[in-house]
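User: Hi! I have a protein structure encoded as tokens and I'd like to know what sequence might fold into it. I'm fairly new to this, so please keep things simple.
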């Protein structure tokens, strides 16, 4: 038995359905009793028909990707500070703050759970993560327009994003101070400055 009772089904608007389904995913991920994260279980918790979820998202993997990206857009914004270093540092700071929260760690779990089992699911999942990739590209485009020389997208993913996610997956908190700046320094090929543990 899960920790919360299923929500009674009532007629909802499209945005209400999306919000209810997203919250159901978060609730099930955080269930201490290890509730199954299946489409029927999500639909029951959200108070919607499971066919509505399949019609909108196509697969569980695509739904999880949408939940993850939507939460990242809310909690891990891409701020325009006026410089490439400032943008990347602000982004890394928001990322560190996010993965220190229970929901942030749940989202990392959701990323792992959203790994697709079929080519179709992979395509559906990729459509949602492309939203985040395009947002990162905007940081690079802004920097280029200012005359700066931004690193390639793959380098940003490998050196700025991946370390944060790996720490969250293995349950290792980032150092208390200086870690975002350290990652950005490494990314922009500047000397390392050791963070404070």
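Assistant: Happy to help. Inverse folding works backwards from shape to sequence: for each of the 197 positions I chose a residue that suits the local structure. Here it is:
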């Amino acid at each position: 038995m899960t920790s919360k009772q299923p929500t009674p089904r009532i007629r909802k608007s499209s945005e209400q359905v999306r919000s209810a389904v997203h919250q159901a995913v978060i609730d099930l991920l955080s269930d201490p009793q290890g509730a199954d994260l299946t489409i029927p279980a999500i639909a029951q918790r959200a108070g919607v028909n499971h066919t509505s979820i399949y019609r909108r998202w196509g697969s569980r993997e695509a739904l999880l990707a949408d939940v993850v990206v939507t939460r990242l857009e809310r909690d891990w914004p891409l701020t325009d500070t006026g410089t490439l270093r400032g943008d990347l540092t602000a982004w890394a700071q928001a990322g560190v703050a996010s993965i220190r929260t229970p929901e942030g760690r749940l989202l990392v779990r959701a990323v792992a759970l959203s790994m697709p089992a079929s080519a179709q699911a992979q395509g559906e999942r990729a459509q949602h993560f492309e939203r985040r990739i395009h947002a990162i590209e905007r940081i690079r485009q802004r920097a280029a327009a200012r005359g700066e020389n931004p690193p390639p997208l793959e380098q940003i993913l490998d050196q700025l994003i991946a370390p944060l996610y790996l720490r969250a997956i293995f349950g290792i908190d980032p150092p208390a101070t200086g870690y975002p700046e350290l990652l950005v320094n490494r990314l922009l090929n500047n000397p390392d400055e050791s963070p404070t543990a």
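A useful reference point when you look it over: The chain has nine helices and no strands. Feel free to ask if any position seems puzzling.
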